[in-house]
Amino acid sequence: MSVFKWIGATVGWSLGGPLGAILGLALGSLGDAFSKEENLFNLGEGDKKKRRPSPNYSYRNQTQPGDFEVSLLVLASVVIKADGKQDQRELDLVRMQFVKLYGKERANNAFKVFKEISKQQISTRQVCLQIQQRMEHASRLQLVHFLFDIAKADGEVHESEESQIHTIAGYLNISYRDYESIKAMFYNSSNSAYKILEITPEASVDEIKKAYRRMAKKYHPDKVEHLGEAHKKGAEAKFKEVLKAYEQLQKERGF
After folding, report:
1. What are phi and psi of 242, to 5 degrees?
2. Is-above-0.85 flag for pTM?
3. Which long-range contacts (CB under 8 A, 24 or more apart) does 214-217 make?
4. Measured between alpha carbons, how far is 118 from 17 in angstroms, rounded to an integer?
5. Which domains does the chain have, with CATH numbers?
6. How far apart are CA 50 and CA 58, in angstroms?
7. What does pLDDT average to over the chain?
8. Residues in Cβ contact with 109 at an 8 Å cutoff, skipping those fewer than 6 apart
């Protein structure tokens, strides 16, 4: 399988702007970025037409799987360098997470691109601005969730990693409550269940029930069904955390 086939779906808006420049340099470094059969505007298997976003393109349309995965690769490279260094152990952990998401063959190709991306100096703000403008809210929430998942691959989310993800979430226009909800899924604390449901410990039983229904709707896997099965499974993990938090409060509060 060519490295260009790893995305496995049409790439659209991520071929322009900062993301396109980063991806182009990474693929060029691999030595076959402009082969006769394939090029940067023909990464996906689902659309064989060359396509480049209009320079004036700024409205948000439905994110394609390839757009999401390119965004994840770039932002994951930012997170693992949050402490100012990057070692082979961290790279191995990221690769393991890709295997969990995409399967071995697809992950191997994604990881080739990721290693080239991780060598670059990336403007986090510019990249996030492109993503924020063109990726719908549910997909951006899923992106932050996956970044925490990658950060915790070694067993814990380090302070520098959390700080970097917090910065990314801000640039992605993720609200404080949404960010704290996702963050709480990766920490064990006395009030994690409340944070996941975006309520306080003073919430009434009725407020807890309403919060659960609201969060279940917000994090429902169908929200990211268009991203493909791998990402839908990731959303299911987030959805289960909401259910787990609700069941914990049911037990603690006796309702």
Report:
1. -65, -45
2. no
3. 215/181, 215/242, 216/242, 216/243
4. 18
5. 3-174 (no CATH), 188-255 (1.10.287.110)
6. 19
7. 81
8. 1, 2, 3, 5, 6
135: nearest Cα among 47, 72, 78, 68? 68
pLDDT band at 61; cut points 50, 70, 90:
low
Q: Which two tokens stand for residue 127?
A: 């990249």
- Nearest CA to 127 out of 54, 23, 50 is that of 23
How is the chain classified by DSSP, letter by letter?
A: --GGGSS-S---GGGSHHHHHHHHHHHHHTT-TT-SS--GGG--SS--S-----TT--S--PPPHHHHHHHHHHHHHHHHTTTS---HHHHHHHHHHHHHHH-HHHHHHHHHHHHHHTTS---HHHHHHHHHHHS-HHHHHHHHHHHHHHHGGGSS--HHHHHHHHHHHHHTT--HHHHHHHHHTT---TTHHHHHTT--TT--HHHHHHHHHHHHHHT-GGGGGGG-HHHHHHHHHHHHHHHHHHHHHHHHHT-
Q: Can you tell me which residue has the tokens 């226009």?
A: 173
Residue 55 has pLDDT above 50, yes or no: no
